[in-house]
Amino acid sequence: KHHNASKCLSQHVLCKALHSSATSRRNPVRLTELWMEYGTHRLQVELLNPVNLSLMCTWAGNQNKPSNITGFWRKDGEEIENSRVTVQLENEQYNLKQKFSIISEENLGSYSCVFGGEAKIDFDLAAPQIGDVRDKPIVSYVGDSVVMTCKMEENKPKPNTWNWYMANDTGKVEPQRYEIKNDGWKTKLLVYNLTEADSGLFYCGAVYPISTTMSHVELKVISFYEPLKPFIAIVVEVIVLVAAILLYERSQSKKDYTAAVFHDVHLYPFIRTPGENNALEESSSMRQRKV
């Protein structure tokens, strides 16, 4: 028995398997037909296996309804070469059909049928996507261990296997300090004896015959001193503030002491003892007698 080659997510689409032509016993290529009427505009299609896919679009036309219009196809926004055809008006509507060989990941993407530049319908072809994506990084400490998880929804087809990759790394995760545990729709990556060099992005891949669906988990490895940094910064600020206050008070004390000494020195010549005053009076009297 062959597995369903596609999953149609719209009631406006007719999915019909016409016949099968196996290229190999393991990965048969099915011929599948998808039809969509203008009004839905976009259809998400999940593919598991290589497939010969016939895409068909129907458009009711505008008020003028010319006897024929030009229709063509695009992939990922670029017009497909030699896809322009003349589409005749039949039963008050225009029908555009094209067959595509979707045999590898390069063939996946967004396919669009265009009617005379006025109407467009999109078919988004992709392998089942991982919906459970972690937004925030996992934080752990140097020397500890950590478990990272990727999960495919269980209402989607089960992946053949799972792979893990590291950012800025050329190959798969090697099992020296890493351990991979796959369990159907879920995979876990265990990392032991963490170092700060382990910080970064780890990519998990759900492997299907047609493509590998990727997701990522971010890991941040910190030292035990990292959480203390804000506290240490506050303590340093307090020490600097107290030191500034003490220096200011000390400088003010020196200024007060200097001012007091200056006052005593300049006031001293004008302050005399009674003996000094009598001596000055006698000296003045003697100078008067001599005169």
UniProtKB/TrEMBL annotation:
<dbReference type="InterPro" id="IPR007110">
    <property type="entry name" value="Ig-like_dom"/>
</dbReference>
<dbReference type="InterPro" id="IPR013098">
    <property type="entry name" value="Ig_I-set"/>
</dbReference>
<dbReference type="Pfam" id="PF07679">
    <property type="entry name" value="I-set"/>
</dbReference>
<feature type="transmembrane region" description="Helical">
    <location>
        <begin position="230"/>
        <end position="248"/>
    </location>
</feature>
<protein>
    <submittedName>
        <fullName>Embigin</fullName>
    </submittedName>
</protein>
<feature type="domain" description="Ig-like">
    <location>
        <begin position="128"/>
        <end position="215"/>
    </location>
</feature>
<keyword id="KW-1133">Transmembrane helix</keyword>
<dbReference type="InterPro" id="IPR036179">
    <property type="entry name" value="Ig-like_dom_sf"/>
</dbReference>
<keyword id="KW-0812">Transmembrane</keyword>
<dbReference type="InterPro" id="IPR013783">
    <property type="entry name" value="Ig-like_fold"/>
</dbReference>
<dbReference type="InterPro" id="IPR003599">
    <property type="entry name" value="Ig_sub"/>
</dbReference>
<keyword id="KW-0472">Membrane</keyword>
<feature type="domain" description="Ig-like">
    <location>
        <begin position="28"/>
        <end position="113"/>
    </location>
</feature>
